[in-house]
Amino acid sequence: MRDSEELELSEDSVTRISANRQRDQSDHDRPRNASWITMGTAAALGLLLTYQGIHLGFFHGVNEIDDGVYYGEGVMLAHGLLPYRSYLDLQPPGIALLMAPFGLLGRMTSNRMSFELARVFVVIVGVANLGLLGRLIRRRHWVAVLAGLVALGFYIDSLTAEHTILLEPFLVFGTLVGFLIVFGDTEIATSSASRWLVAGAVLGLTTSIKLWEVLPVMVLLVFAAMRSRRCLIHFAVGTVAGFGIICAPFILLAPAKFVQEVIIDQATRSHFGQVGLGFRLWNLLGAPGPGHFTLTSALFVPIALWSIFALVVFSSIIFERRANSNRMVTNLDACAMACLAVVGASFLLATGYYTHYGGFLSLFLAIVLSATAARLVPFAEPFMKIAMAMAMLGFFVIAARGVVGNKNEPPITAALDRVFPPTVCVLSTNYAPLILANRYNLYTPQCPRVLDIYGTELADGHGIAHSATDAHVAKLQADWLGWLKRVDGIILPSTAATSRSLGVNVRTYLRSHFSLVAISEGLFIYRRK
After folding, report:
1. What 3-state class would DSSP assign to 520?
2. 494-509 pLDDT, tens per residue?
3. Among the residues of 410-473, which ranges form H helices?
4. C-beta of residue 250 within 8 angstroms of C-beta of residue 208
5. What CA–CA distance (Å, rounded) separates 452 from 446?
6. Using one digit for the tens of pLDDT, what is the confidence trace for 307-340?
7. What gap in Å lies between CA 259 and CA 93, rounded to an integer?
8. Which H or E element spans position 516?
């Protein structure tokens, strides 16, 4: 009898040891599997963005208004012209420093070629973001890793932000580096004060690109405080130091303008025709606008979908705790959920909203989705492979259709070649066409340094820029008259008779001193008579 019990005990021990070995082997294989999945997903994203850049024309087309502004900042810096001191700039100086090497290259070669290379650089950053995310969540189940990578890489707003020079890919990159320093791949906040210091410096540098980075910094301050007072102090000091290293020289040279343009004008900005809550909710879901839905349903449906998403997330946490009471929400999960709530709320409440903003939210959404998938795998593992394959197929089909539109070679580039010589001074509401035509000369002494006309409207109108007030803002109209007296040409998105930024006196001067010589891509090209 005793021999039988010992035999049964021995068999139980063998079974338990075997199960432990299988689990240990699975844990050992996960990072390797995650590496392969990360490389494959990153390669797919790189191919898609390259296809869009070359075949659909995003590398050499007119895509946005902001990309010309950001590249233009690099050109101005390469010519020794500083933001806030030499021209108005509503963003911190980080993007100007990032674009300065491309501006210097454009000075030595051509702005067109350098502008296209800067757009390729953004694609590289987007692919690198997938590599960093894969490294951050590499100890999760392969389904969870794939869910997070697909959510970040093929989320529509991410693709929109990565197709040209916009700020969101750089914010995601800096945030991921900070998360890796703080959480590593264990997903537990470090107790090392020196690591918190370095993470703070990285996030401070990222904040110098766009102030939105303050939101995840605020969340991480809570986690640093939970670790120790020393970690909190080091993280705060690192953040201030990182931001100060980049911004301090510009602040010292133009303190009043820096505060007014970067902080006050940004905080109070508003303009006519802003999109409503329904569109924002739909867009942040990674879906198109409400389309044929009524106003009521356009709000109800996305709110219901976001509620279902929140329910699934929290239900997965409850189910996992019931199955294994020792399993807790990791620090990384909690941080990502807090950032998702804070950043998402700021997008819904902000006076201004554009579709590429969600490219920043996509990082936190991807981490939360990945954690949710990891918790649901034990309950639905037989169906996970089929579900993930279908999800991947859906993302690729949507992405391959060109979610940000087709931007082939614009005829306006050829029109500018015909109308203006290379040394001309032209004012434009969108400088991308001038850059692509190698007619970007704002850095020359005789040319007014108006890099961001919309930003100037905001500053002159005390944070307000729309058709109801622009023509009545005396300072703005005085600025327009001063610009027109110094330029050889001007490009407007509408005729002089209907342009929202022009008052009666400005329109009169424009009609008497300039001639409409071409209309291309919806832009009206005027040349001095």
Report:
1. strand
2. 776 566 667 788 888 9
3. 411-419, 432-436, 453-460
4. no
5. 18
6. 999 998 998 888 888 877 667 789 999 999 999 9
7. 12
8. strand 514-520
